[in-house]
Structures are given as C-alpha cells and as structure tokens.
Design a protein that fits this description.
191 residues, Serine Threonine Protein Phosphatase 5, Tetratricopeptide repeat, 0% strand, mainly alpha
C-alpha cells in the first residue's frame, strides 16, 4: 500500500467514525431509554470507555432485549477498536431492531476493519435500502470498492449518489478528490 492509500484510509476511517457517531447521536436524540439506568455516550478517556462498557454489559446481562444498551456497547467497542466485540453487540441490536441503517453501517465498518468486505458491503446495501439517503452507507460502500477491493469503477455509482445528496461537505470534497486520483476513470457525472 502506498502512502496516499494509507492516508486516505486513515482519514476515511476517522471521518466514518465521527460521521457514524454524529448520525447515530442525532437519530437517537429524543427517544426514551429502554433502561432506567442511563448509559453515558461519547468520547472520553480509556477509563470512561471501560466504565461504560462494564455498565452496558451488566445491563444487557440483566435485560438482553435492551436495544439502546446493545447499541451503546457496540459503539464503545467500535470506538475502542474492539472490532469483533462491536460486530457481536451490533448483531444483538439488529436482532432486536433490524432496520436501523446507522447500526447496520457501524457493523459494516467493523466488518471492513476485520477484512470481511462482502459482509460490509451487504450491510451498507441493506442500510441504503432502508434509507436511500443514508450518506454514511453510500460513502462506506464506495470506500470498500475503491480502497479495499481496488475496484474504483464500482465505487463510482455509490459516490455519485452521495454527491447528488451532498456536494459540499468535507466528506463530499474527500470523495471528489478520490474520484479524481490519477489512473481512476471519472464518471460522466463528475466531469
């Protein structure tokens, strides 16, 4: 892998993590907690993550149907790079609430992290079928094709759909930059 590919992958992962967190935070604001015990979410020190993980693990042990606790647990595993544990926690959340495009996308990002690109793509596709305007799933599907599978032509439809919905954000600018890389054929929509 050359330096540019590594840099793009690192930037994409950071943007993906932040975007997923923000989208999830916005989508869950105002919803009632299923548990009487609130789980604090968000960034923090390693001790904060450890504390939240322990708290969420206790809640799901007592209440295995607690959707919010599974999602919080998955998010904290995600943020602490515990990919397999995040995949499992998101899987439990999806058993309870199967049509959550944010959870599908976050689990897909974790599938990507462990190299399960086919499962990642399946999650991104499913998330986008549930919500055709789900930017994060479009972005990540394109990323798997362009960066991981080295099939940039397959990334183009996803990224074109992304750019139709959002053409000016930092992520959109990043996508445009990746689509204009030397050796990459530009789609007619991008000319």
């Amino acid at each position: 892998m050359n330096k540019d590919s590594i840099l793009i992958a690192v930037v994409a992962l950071i943007v993906g993590l932040l975007g997923g967190y923000l989208v999830f935070s916005i989508s869950t604001s105002g919803k009632a907690q299923q548990s009487n015990v609130a789980i604090q979410t968000g960034a923090g020190s390693p001790a904060d993550y450890t504390q939240r993980i322990v708290q969420a693990e206790k809640i799901v042990a007592q209440d295995p149907k607690n959707l919010n606790a599974w999602i919080s647990l998955g998010n904290d595993y995600f943020d602490t790079a515990q990919s397999q544990k995040a995949i499992n926690a998101y899987g439990k959340a999806l058993e309870i609430g199967p049509d959550n495009p944010n959870v599908l996308t976050d689990q897909g990002i974790m599938f990507r992290a462990v190299g399960w690109y086919d499962k990642a793509l399946a999650n991104f596709e499913r998330a986008n079928k549930i919500d055709p305007n789900h930017l994060q799933s479009l972005y990540n599907a394109g990323l798997v094709y362009a960066v991981d599978l080295k099939q940039p032509e397959k990334a183009t439809p996803y990224w074109n759909r992304y750019l139709k919905l959002d053409s000016s954000s930092p992520t959109a600018i990043q996508i445009k930059g990746m689509m204009e890389q030397p050796g990459r054929s530009m789609s007619p929509a991008m000319k």
